[in-house]
Amino acid sequence: MSCLWIHSVFIPGFFLLFGFEGFPVISVESQRSTDNITIRQGDTTVIRCYVDDKVSKVAWLNRSNIIFAGEDKWSLDPRVELVTQGQLEYSLRIQKVDVFDEGPYTCSIQTKQQSKTSQVYLIVQVPAIIYKVSEDITVNEGSNVALTCLANGRPDPAITWRLLNPSAEALDVGEYLEISGVVRSQAGRYECKASNDVSTPDVKYVNVVVNYPPYIKDVRSSETAVGQAGVLHCEASAVPQPEFEWYRDERRLSSSQSLTIQVSGSRTVLVVANVTEEDYGNYTCVATNRLGVHNASVFLYKPGMGRDINSAGCICQSLWLLLLCVSSALLQC
Q1: 278's torsion region: left (phi>0), alpha (psi -120 to 50) or beta?
Q2: Contact residues for 226 (Cβ-Cβ < 8 A; gap 6+)
Q3: Which intervals of the chain form a coiled coil (predicted)?
Q4: Which of 152, 211, 264, 309 has a CA-to-CA distance to 279 between 20 and 30 Å?
Q5: Are 262 and 271 in contact (CB under 8 A)?
Q6: What is the 8-class DSSP label of residue 318?
């Protein structure tokens, strides 16, 4: 209301003082509610004001600043220009709209009887942009993790999180994602998305690496005849990747003419090139990293002698577990 009062006092004085001739317009009563135009930052907008055949004087104002008086441009902004269609239109075009263009725009009319105005409020929207996001992090299992994703835009963007595992389920909503006592299944690529429906969402990613000690998840024993090559397999899960060692009783094994140890990532293979009677028995696979150690027993056995041991499904982590496995196998005989 105060803005309209200013116009009702300022505009007639303006016309009287400068006495310019303008275009006739279709005027709107000053009591009419203000219309809104919503435009995206960087786009071009045209604020319409139409004329009729009545002789009137017109001007464009932004707040109390004169942009055009008739055809005379008072604004120094090169992005602003008049749009006229003969004597029928007196509209205002603004190119590359920015946030500082937001506000009220008034098409002011001076008739012989009174001054009238048509006012439009320009709303400038800004696409969501993420300006700060957490860096990739590496933590030990059980630690607390806090991720940050900050964004701005007009209107304020909504921020959502997802862990891009196969299900990609939605997580917390908001700038901060907190994980208490992180576990290995929560490792992966986290997606932060900021959206406010002005443009396509802005998306950033944070990689979370969770360290944990080795766990031997699979071993394969070998039933091999004398003179043949026996192959023992061992696979472990760990972050960082584990280092492997092979033992026979208490003796650490190394590659030689009769033995070959192969390591590929999280897997290791022990190859006995030419099996003899002395080679049959229990072998121990040991996986280590800086967070811990895990071991399991693997068997090289003579055909017809070791099936019961394998069928018992035992992975023995120490000598007493090995004895328990053997005892269980003997009881099944």
Answers
A1: alpha
A2: 275, 276, 277, 302
A3: none
A4: 264
A5: yes
A6: S
CB atoms within 10 A of CB 1: 6
Taking the C-alpha atoms of residue 273 and residue 227, their distance in angstroms, rounded to an integer, is 8
Query: Which tokens go with 28?
Result: 């709107």
Q: What is the largest CA-CA distance in the chain?
A: 120
Two structure tokens written together for 270 = 């022990």
Q: What is the pLDDT along the chain (333 residues), one digit of tens a residue?
A: 334 333 443 444 444 444 444 433 333 333 344 689 999 999 999 999 886 666 568 899 998 899 999 889 999 999 999 998 777 788 999 999 999 999 999 998 777 777 778 899 999 999 999 999 999 999 999 999 999 999 999 999 999 999 998 777 788 899 999 999 999 999 999 999 999 999 999 999 999 999 999 999 999 999 999 999 999 999 999 999 999 999 998 899 999 989 999 999 999 999 999 999 999 999 999 999 999 999 999 999 999 875 444 433 334 344 433 333 334 333 333
Residue 190 vs residues 30, 73, 130, 168, 247: alpha-carbon distances, Å:
54, 53, 14, 9, 41
Q: How many angstroms separate the CA atoms of 52 and 88, rounded? A: 6
Query: For the chain, how many residues are written?
Result: 333
CB 245 within 8 A of CB 252: yes
Distance CA 75, CA 67 (A): 5
Domains of the chain, each with CATH number or no CATH? 2-125 (2.60.40.10), 134-211 (2.60.40.10), 221-331 (2.60.40.10)
Pairing mode, if any, of strands 103-110 and 115-133? antiparallel
